[in-house]
């Protein structure tokens, strides 16, 4: 790699791609609520390296954003969520009216005792997380960036250096907002080929300590080091220190780690540190008590606000409001939250299985485009990328979904299902995507993507057919997604024990209808309208958030 040339080409000023996001004549902030300010701060406001009190930073973000299409979209979503919260609180008041909660609390206390009796402290699970991964890789190629605030990305940042985070800059932030927070911010173009190269090296090191580790992204994962420690007669702290030292020695990159009996320990000592949560229930519950509910995997920004509306800001607050949560179990998922309160999470670490894969897709983000030829060119690029992934991975499917994001940041999808397996050829994928897209034009787009669902694994052996299968021994029930929980029971229904208690019920923000004034026409009768945020089969894997 010619690092000098890469560096020279990478440094940018505010890109033209962001000008459509910047307000021309910013009006006064019309909805200056705490919830809106927090929302505008983005989903990465809990990242390591950011200031604890971000009130002033959030104000700057709001001032920089107001009047932009991004701001208007976030304000609309905040208003919709506030209305939903009002309905939830009304349901809560109705559920509690005239109810003696003491018997409910006693029943829940019995359930807590049952869950506690199933706590497993026998496994040592490590969450490993590379420190500002993209930025750290860039530093390898250009050491002159050391100590300077810089970030990787185009219209929206992929990551930011710890020096930039001191100013409030973080991943998922619009570039023009980041520049308002940090005028001297250096912007670098993404170099995904290089990041992938370094990710493979790091993952290879992790696999020496746990061959069945779970990769939770290109820069983090979960390792069960129980067997390694036993075989090499080392304790967990020594083992994790060795892992971190090996990563640094072989890649010059730093990694942080959390050691716990399950997957609850995350970014306690970032960057370049490790934290060992004591393996006893008292220490674990104390650790969880003051932990922000937002830090819990499975609780995003929407569920955070819903829980905060009930008075649940920390994991310790769950116990105080346990009766309300029982009465509103379908909305919030009682068992998941009780397990969170106790600090009981999965200690099963294994890679995702091919049969678990629900979809395969590709998408591109770009400056706002309204020219039909340019939009179709982007769609063709996506089709080519999807072809590569389908051929390399050995996948086909029966449903093709087109995803597009307007310049107003609203996301829509259109899908078409077939009674045959979809061809993986670029030209065929492009033709289907084009068929779905053309009826919707003219539009101004910032993102376009294609996704295949209802998958068929072309690498899987064909099932035995004909009369032969009647003479083969019957197997157990069809393979299901590996359980990540103990079979904890719901306090009212023993049959509920088989439900997934690893996440809250899905509250999603989504666009139910086309934006006002934009003629999103329906396609032919074979095309059904889906919403990208509310379609479970559009998610490939769960990435555990820090």
Set out the fold topology.
Blueprint: H1 3-10, H2 34-40, H3 55-65, H4 69-96, H5 101-117, E1 125-130, H6 133-141, E2 150-153, E3 157-160, H7 162-165, H8 175-181, E4 186-188, H9 192-209, E5 214-215, E6 220-224, H10 226-232, H11 236-251, E7 255-260, E8 274-276, H12 281-289, H13 301-309, H14 317-320, H15 322-327, H16 329-332, H17 334-342, E9 359-369, H18 372-393, E10 395-406, E11 411-417, H19 426-437, E12 445-457, E13 527-530
Parallel strand pairs: 2-4, 7-8
Antiparallel strand pairs: 1-6, 1-7, 2-3, 5-6, 9-12, 10-11, 10-12, 11-13
From the structure above, extract its key features.
546 residues, disordered N terminus, globular, single chain, five-stranded antiparallel sheet, five-stranded mixed sheet, alpha+beta
Concise synopsis of the structure shown:
By secondary structure, this protein is α+β, with helices and mostly antiparallel strands. The chain is built from 19 helices and 13 strands. Helices cover 38% and strands 15% of the residues.
Summarize the structure in words:
The chain is an alpha+beta fold. The protein has 19 helices and 13 strands. The strands form three sheets. Strands 5-6-1-7-8 form a five-stranded mixed β-sheet. A five-stranded antiparallel β-sheet has the order 9-12-10-11-13. A hairpin with a 4-residue loop joins strand 5 and strand 6. Helix 9 runs antiparallel to helix 11. The relative contact order is 0.11. The N terminus and C terminus are likely disordered.
End-to-end Cα distance, whole Å, is 32 Å
Structural class estimated from helices and strands: alpha+beta
> Strand arrangement, largest sheet?
5-6-1-7-8
Individual helix count: 19
Overall residue-averaged pLDDT value? 79
**Main beta sheet:** 5 strands, mixed
Helix content: 25-40%
Q: Which band does the percent of strand residues land in?
A: 5-15%
Pick out the low-confidence regions: 1-32, 466-500, 515-546
The outline comes out as globular
CA radius of gyration:
25 Å
* Total number of beta strands: 13
């Amino acid at each position: 790699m010619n690092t000098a040339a890469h560096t020279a080409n990478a440094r940018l000023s505010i890109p033209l791609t962001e000008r459509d996001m910047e307000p021309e004549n910013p009006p006064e902030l019309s909805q200056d609520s705490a919830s809106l300010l927090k929302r505008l701060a983005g989903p990465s406001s809990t990242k390591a390296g950011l200031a604890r009190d971000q009130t002033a930073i959030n104000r700057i973000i709001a001032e920089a954003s107001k009047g932009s299409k991004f701001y208007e979209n976030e304000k609309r979503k905040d208003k919709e969520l506030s209305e939903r919260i009002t309905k939830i609180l009304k349901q809560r008041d109705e559920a509690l009216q005239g109810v003696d909660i003491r018997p409910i609390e006693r029943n829940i206390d019995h359930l807590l005792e049952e869950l506690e009796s199933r706590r497993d402290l026998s496994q040592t699970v490590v969450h490993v997380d590379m420190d500002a991964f993209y930025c750290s890789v860039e530093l390898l190629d250009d050491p002159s960036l050391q100590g300077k605030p810089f970030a990787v990305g185009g219209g929206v940042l992929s990551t930011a250096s710890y020096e930039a985070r001191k100013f409030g800059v973080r991943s998922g932030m619009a570039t023009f907002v980041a520049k308002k927070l940090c005028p001297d911010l250096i912007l670098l173009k993404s170099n995904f080929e290089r990041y992938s190269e370094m990710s493979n090296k790091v993952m290879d090191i992790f696999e020496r300590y746990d061959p069945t580790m779970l990769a939770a992204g290109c820069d983090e994962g979960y390792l069960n080091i129980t067997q390694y420690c036993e075989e090499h007669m080392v304790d967990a702290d020594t083992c994790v220190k060795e892992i971190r030292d090996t990563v640094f020695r072989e890649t010059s990159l730093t990694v942080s780690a959390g050691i716990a009996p399950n997957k609850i320990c995350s970014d306690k000592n970032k960057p370049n540190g490790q934290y060992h949560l004591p393996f006893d229930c008292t220490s674990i519950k104390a650790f969880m008590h003051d932990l922000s509910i937002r830090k819990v995997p499975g609780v995003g920004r929407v569920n955070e606000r819903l829980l905060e509306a009930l008075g649940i800001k920390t994991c310790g607050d769950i116990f105080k409001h346990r009766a309300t949560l029982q009465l509103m179990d379908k909305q919030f998922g009682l068992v998941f939250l009780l397990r969170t309160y106790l600090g009981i999470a999965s200690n099963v670490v294994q890679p995702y299985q091919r049969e678990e894969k629900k979809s395969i897709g590709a998408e591109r983000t770009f400056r706002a485009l309204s020219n039909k030829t340019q939009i179709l060119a982007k769609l063709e690029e996506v089709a080519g990328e999807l072809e590569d992934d389908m051929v390399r991975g050995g996948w086909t499917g029966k449903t093709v979904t087109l995803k597009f994001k307007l310049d107003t940041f609203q996301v829509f999808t259109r899908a078409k299902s077939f009674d045959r397996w979809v061809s993986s050829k670029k030209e065929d994928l492009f033709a289907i995507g084009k068929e779905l897209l053309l009826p919707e034009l003219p539009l101004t787009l910032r993102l376009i993507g294609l996704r295949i669902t209802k998958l068929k694994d072309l690498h899987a052996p064909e099932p035995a057919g004909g009369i032969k299968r009647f003479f083969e021994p019957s197997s157990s029930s069809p393979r299901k997604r590996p359980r990540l929980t103990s079979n904890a029971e719901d306090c009212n229904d023993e049959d509920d024990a088989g439900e997934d208690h690893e996440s809250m019920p899905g509250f999603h923000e989504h666009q139910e209808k086309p934006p006002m004034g934009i003629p999103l026409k329906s396609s032919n009768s074979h095309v059904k309208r889906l919403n990208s945020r509310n379609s479970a089969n559009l998610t490939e894997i769960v990435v555990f958030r820090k």
